[in-house]
Amino acid sequence: VALGEDLPTTSLERPPARGVRAPARAHPRLFQHSGMPLPMPCKFTGVAQDTFAKVKKCMVADSAADERRAVSDLAAAFNGLVCVGEDQVDTKSEGGKTACKKFLAALALVSERLQCQAADRTYRANFTRNYRILFPDTKRRYRVDVLEAILDGLDSFYVNGTQFRLSNPTLDNGLAAAIGWDELGRMLKSWSSHSGGRSLRDIKAALVSFDDRWAEFERSYIFELIHIEEQARSIIVEAIDKERRLTNFECDFGEAAPVTGRARQSLAVCVAKLNTVANSRRKGRGDLGFEVLERCYMVLESADGDFTAAHSIANQATSSFWALRGYLRHASESLERIDPYLGNNAGLVDRLVDWEESWEVANRYLEGPMSDALVSMVKGVLTAKVNYPAFAGMCEDCDAELFMVLPRIVVLTYIQRPEIHGALLYGVLPDVFEGEGEAATPGPELQELLDSYKRLLDRTDTPEVVPSILLRRAIYGDAGLGVAPATALLAAMPGFMRELERWSMAMQRRRPDDWNSIAAVILKAMGDTRVKDALTVSI
Q1: Residue in 183, 190, 175 with CA at minimum distance from that of residue 207
Q2: By CB neighbour count within 10 A (0-12 exposed, 13-18 middle, 19+ buried), where does 72 fall?
Q3: Which of 95, 131, 401, 526 is exposed most, by the fewest CB atoms within 10 A?
Q4: pTM for this one?
Q5: Cα 509-511-515 angle, rounded to 5 deg
Q6: Residue 138 DSSP label
Q7: What distance in Å separates the CA atoms of residue 66 and residue 180, rounded to the nearest whole number?
Q8: Is 19 exposed, middle or buried (0-12, 13-18, 19+ CB in 10 A)?
Q9: 204 by DSSP, 3-state: which?
Q10: Distance, CA of 361 to CA of 273 (rounded, Å)
């Protein structure tokens, strides 16, 4: 058959005669193997040509209808977005995020259905591990948080108290993406499934344009976030380096070497700086001086048995500092898992809270009159624990009754030797003293309590038994008199105990945080490690 001619009609309509085999078609590979040229295609007959055109037209029509339905679904998802005000899309509330997530998923799906050219996203291979988890491949993967950054148009934000500004190219890319979002939104709002082909072509063009702008913003924005996160983590990275240096010096030169002491001081200063930005549950003090830690080490090296309470305080402070060092060593193995908002890292915050609390206690009670008052107070409470089984049981169970009896014992201990325990009571009730610090003296209200105690002693010929009677009464209540006291003393006892109870409640209510601190110090010095949780439940 000559090229370009129609095949004879009979060759298409007439089947081969019965018993005659139809000629086999030669496989294209056979022609290539034999060196013969492949047969050229020839024209269809008029009937076949018309049929093929009709089928092709139907297929194109069905495909276009499917595409219009897909765009209609996308328009419905866009109209389902939650808005704040007139046109501001809500990306922050739970309902708003859900609607945005649904629309972005539909946007990616429809873009694939319409065979829109996707922007190049090979840059994601250079993301850090955390962001590669969010963007594992080069697919579109539109995310609500990126959309929020586009629509909000923020040019700066704060991380750990430091302001970070986005670069001008990133801001320009965000503005371009926002314009693309508005253009796409207007087209979807006015979309109709009965629109012509030109409208569908416009939608495809808008999808391609928006995807290009989105990818360009995503690239610059995520890379800037990575850089900002590195800067935000720099303070904990510095602490990790200083801890590693201290560990090496301790191994090479020993803990008592001067070079080790300087390295420990450098780490303590860095930890104080870290505490100001990461300790989100407490004061976040930046004045956690190194001298307090050194004082704790000096106390632990002392073998004087009179410093039992001081040893307990120093041990708690050094242990909390050591636990913080352990966290830094563990964090060095997986820096990418540290949240750049350092206050969101629960383990880090827990250790900083413990270090700040123990530092404050050590700073307050390990030097000067407060140290002497604490040592004497702990001895008095230990004596009550040894001599009165009921109080020992309260300490063992750490129940609520303990925290009613303990402040009574503290007040009784004070009124017996106010010159020694005045500093301790001043830490809880400074407003009942006149003057400040070591020069503080009892005010009129407190002096009345001391005078009342002296009058109580004058009512008996054996004043030496009065402290033990009062202590039993404070622990056991009305059944705690033991040996019957003199009649005059017995008559004055209820009034004095009521006054004692009033002062006991005042200590707990006027400055509860200070009282909790002192109560925790006393009980921990007695060897109870459950005090912190018990105090929290009690208060």
Answers
A1: 183
A2: middle
A3: 95
A4: 0.69
A5: 90
A6: S
A7: 25
A8: exposed
A9: helix
A10: 19
